[in-house]
What does this fold into?
Amino acid sequence: MILGVFVARPYCRFLCPYGVLLGWMSYFSKFHLDIPPSPCVSCRLCEDSCPYNAIDMPTPEALVEEPGTGKRRLRTVLFLSPLIITAGAMVGYMLNEPLSRLHPVVQLSERMVAEDTGLVQGEILETETFRTSDQTTASLHAEALGIRNSFKTGGAWLGAFVALIVTLKLIGLSIVKKRDVYTPHKETCFSCGRCYPYCPVEEGGVHP
Ligand code: SF4
Ligand code: SF4
It folds into this structure.
């Protein structure tokens, strides 16, 4: 939410898996919104008018790459992608303990153990209420163990998912195309058309 104050729709644009898939579909689709100035006078009015920072500037000469550099980078990322995803899954798995402690049942189970073994003195409202209930301590610990195990599986999937998003982003960044004019980005442009009226040399509309 805090990031959203500075960047428009950060989750949709950078993290949402559906957004990533839509971005990829958009990248390969035939028709795209375009600002086809002839010639583009590089006034940058379109860039300023876009609320999503979706206008890409012409590629600076210093960043124009040798032919084949992008392909080599892409091959490297593709080669490393299984390792990145596996590493993400492992990190997610290792985080199961701190993450599971966010669950109230796990918190209660740990507090009960601490009280019963004398690690902490006195009872809190939750343990006091639990001790007056019908549930046994053994069943509470068993339930907490089940939740911890779920967090192991869930943490691994979450880590793998985040790593997958990172990998897809890296793949996208490895494909650098030379641009000669200001162009709406294929993946991040929402085709809202707000930039059109700002272009002083724009005449038409959507161009394939
Ligand atoms: S159509 Fe909308 S989202 Fe796309 S570049 Fe123009 S202003 Fe930005
Ligand atoms: S508003 Fe039109 S002329 Fe100006 S930079 Fe954008 S595309 Fe080029």
Residues 75 and 171 are 9 Å apart (CA to CA). The chain has a mean pLDDT of 84. Residues 66-177 form one domain. The chain is about 55% helix and 0% strand.
